[in-house]
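User: I'm putting together a teaching handout on how sequence relates to shape, and I'd like one worked example. Could you take CXXC motif containing zinc binding protein from Coptis chinensis, show the sequence you're using, and then write out its predicted structure as tokens right after it?

Assistant: Happy to. First the sequence, then the structure tokens directly below it.
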Amino acid sequence: MVNIILTITAELENLDSLQPQGGVDDPDFSYYFKMKCMNCGEVSQKETCVSLSDTVPNPNGRGTSHLVQKCKFCSREGTVTMIPGRGKPLMLDVSESRDYAPLMLFDCRGLEPVDFAFGQGWKAISTSGTKFEDIDLSGGEYADYCEKGQIPVMISNLQAKFDAVK
Ligand SMILES: [Zn+2]
């Protein structure tokens, strides 16, 4: 078993924070990534989608996971379980120092997530306090205008990585 944390960063222009719509532990926020088999190293062709509210029974009949997937190459089955409570919104100061903010922890058995893809369902708050909701980051960036502060807002240069934690 390996615990892997997903961390993200982005350039924020006139925005104070970026996080999933319902907060870092939003039960309906969808995470998209590919799976790499820890046995043979094969990476899945298609992206997998997981969310906290969506669980499946474990192959051994005990408990549940958020993903059970069989490697197409070596047929080894693996599971991924999401562990909430570890994420933080990406704040402006973290973004400015080019640091990453933790988003979600994954307990991985036999499979590890790779290639996180930014999708829909993000929320950002401008430096003037305006909330921007249901932001779609699948295009790689986002731009809008804050009426209250009369300033343009923008999210760009999205980066994500998975790191093993001990
Ligand atoms: Zn495999």
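A couple of points you could highlight for students: The longest helix spans residues 92-96. The chain has a mean pLDDT of 96.
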